[in-house]
Amino acid sequence: MALSCENFFPRFRGTVKEVAHIKRPRCGKCGKLIRIASHSKARMVVGVAEDYATTTAYYWCGNPGCSAFKRNSVHPENPYVPPDGAFDWEVIATVCVIRWSNHCTYEEIIAELVTRHSIGMCKDTVERFLKTYEIACEAKYRPKYITNIRNNGRIIVAINGIDPLKGERGIYGAHDALTGMPLGTKKMPNQKQETIAEFLRTTKARVERELGVPIAGIISDAHRSQRLAIEGVFPGVPHCLCHFHFYKLVLLAPMALDSHLLTMTRSKLRKIPDLRRFEDQRAVGKDVAGGFLGRIIDALLALSDWARRPKDPAFTGLEMFRRVEGILGVLGAAVTKLDAGVAAIPGEKVVRRLAARLEVLVGEGQGPAAELARIKDSLAALKCILSDLEVSAKTGLRRLRSLRDKLRKARLRPQCGAVEREFAEALMQFVGTKGELLFNYKLVEGAPKTNNDQELKIKQLKHFLRRVIGHAAASSFLLNHGERLIFVNPKESVSGILEILKSVDYGEVQKRIAAERNPRDRMPLLMHRPDEWNLFLKETSLLFEVAEQRTTIIL
Q1: Helix, coil or strand: residue 12
Q2: How far apart are CA 229 and CA 194, in angstroms?
Q3: Which are the contacts of 379, defined by CB distance < 8 A and separation ≥ 6?
Q4: Using CA atoms, how far apart are residues 505 and 314, in angstroms rounded to an integer?
Q5: DSSP one-letter string for 232-288
Q6: Dist CA 149 CA 176 (whole Å)
Q7: Pick from 258, 261, 244, 253: nearest CA to 425
Q8: How far, CA to CA in Å, does 389 sit from each of 238, 378, 383, 392?
Q9: How many helices (H) and strands (E) does the chain have?
Q10: Residue-range domains of the chain with CATH
Q11: What is the C-alpha to C-alpha distance for residues 153 and 375, in angstroms, rounded to an integer?
Q12: Measured distance CA(350)–CA(85) in Å, rounded
């Protein structure tokens, strides 16, 4: 190999791989085995383990009596590298593994390739490889989705409004609730009815054109403009409202109160001097509290660090407050025995101080906790009504209205708190205007009660993207790649990634990537290129002269 190649490919060790058929193919004219006529020039390739060269064998028919004699040479496809590529498939697969398994940024991928494999690569190449894999995953898995949809013979369109980045314009997404197949996403300039209707018409046309199955139902949020747009684009199709968004809407005030109770309780616990002192002592290896007092302190310290988690109950603050009440009950019983002289324990003063502190804490939170407890009882009744699959939609709506009437009366009682009243009014308004839509899922076989599947996937992608490219870029990236990213399995093995990459039409992938690039306006580029700017002015003047000549001839 030439010295120049060795300079450009420092890991080249003289390895040359021949691209040839394992068994010689036969001529399509005479049927005899064809033979190797020549080899291509060696082409350098960057691999994971080393740089190497590939040379392709060209075949033609060697039968003098055949019409194809020494004509129309053929050659096998290169199994090592994509067409016109400088990096082989294994390098591309390695980039994908680093991205999806290790959640690395472009810069981190580049650094990882240099550190582990001594491979240099620019950001544009990394992005092209990742797009190639996304499109390959979509090409592999989308047909399976379509087959399942057609086997179902229908589709349930789930529509969701998502805010990838606070303060930025939102995204509308649509997917099939039965299979999870994405049907489209669009960045919305506003939340007006006509803007949403335009997105829905595009989704509807795509379903009719690509899938050819009827739309059996729609599931969406409860926004007024969204509901009116759905009624206009999908007349006569059952419209189901998402139960999750319903709960989220009517529980806005109670959840805020619960969050306040949680914060207040945790803050009060952290300010107890005895807890802080024992925590500091344990930090330096001392543990002076054991037995009864040690268990109390351990429990209170754990509660002081309790944070809300995604799968926690709706009223986490109330649950935490009840646990503090339970500890106060135990301490109160202990203090009673100490006062009666029937018991004596080490750390008696600490027990009394803790009981006094918790008594003040519980006294301050008793009112909000009682209010949340009453709301929780109503919420349990509400959940029972909405989750009962045995009754008809008509019966479910009647039971919901009965609960509404009960809450209407309860909000007029003197003991009803402001948040409890706000919860009742939100529920009354929702049930009065769109309550029946909560039960339309019963009219469509297999319809879910929530449209959160896509939102959950989008949120997972958003968190992934925020980690690897930052908050500001995540929204834009999600818009451009969101539909394809749905098909990517982050846990795919290297062999699986290689299989997906090699199965795709690489030429079509490159065309699609080129078509997706944002067209660059020439004018900003010319601002920093004086020679090209002068040429632009000259060409523009010539165009004017040509136009003037044509006008003169016409006159």
Answers
A1: strand
A2: 7
A3: 251, 314
A4: 49
A5: HHSTTS-EEE-HHHHHHHHTHHHHHHHHHHHHHHHHHHHT-HHHHHHHHHHHTT---
A6: 8
A7: 253
A8: 17, 19, 12, 8
A9: 20, 9
A10: 3-127 (no CATH), 153-238+449-488 (3.30.420.10), 243-443 (no CATH), 522-554 (no CATH)
A11: 43
A12: 74
Backbone phi and psi for residue 284, each to the nearest 5 degrees, phi listed first? -105, 15
In degrees and rounded to multiples of 5, residue 22 shows phi and psi of -65, -45
Closest CA to 308 of 255, 246, 368: 255
DSSP code string of 393-460? HHHHHHHHHHHHHHHHHHTTSTT--HHHHHHHHHHHHHHHHHGGGGGGGGGSTT--S--HHHHHHHHH
The residue among 69, 65, 59, 73 whose CA lies nearest residue 24 is: 59
pLDDT tens string, the chain, 555 residues long: the values are 333 344 567 888 889 999 998 888 899 889 899 988 899 999 999 999 999 999 999 999 988 889 888 888 888 988 999 988 889 999 999 999 998 877 787 888 999 999 999 999 998 899 889 889 988 988 888 888 888 899 999 999 988 876 655 555 667 888 888 888 878 777 778 888 999 999 999 989 988 888 889 999 999 888 888 899 999 999 999 999 988 889 989 999 999 999 999 999 999 999 999 888 887 777 766 665 567 788 888 888 888 888 777 667 678 899 889 999 999 999 998 888 888 877 667 778 888 999 999 999 999 999 999 999 999 999 999 999 998 888 999 999 999 999 999 999 999 888 899 999 999 999 999 999 999 999 999 998 888 888 765 555 555 555 555 554 454 444 455 545 555 666 777 778 889 999 999 888 888 888 888 776 644 444 444 445 566 667 767 776 776 555 545 444 444
CA 77, 83, 84, 85 torsion-angle sign: negative
> What tokens appear for 179 in the block?
């299979």
How far apart are the C-alpha atoms of 342 and 337, rounded to whole Å? 6
- CA–CA separation, 133 and 484 (whole Å): 9
Two structure tokens written together for 186 = 């669009």
Q: Which tokens in the block code for residue 397?
A: 């709506």
Q: Say if residue 306 is exposed, middle or buried (CB neighbours under 10 Å; 0-12, 13-18, 19+).
A: middle
First to last CA, the chain: 69
β-strand pairing of 35-39 with 155-162: unpaired
Inter-residue contact 78 to 56 (CB < 8 Å): yes
Helix (H) or strand (E) holding 175, with range, is strand 171-176
The amino acid sitting at 386 is: L
CA angle 180, 184, 185 (to 5 degrees): 110
pTM of the full structure: 0.66
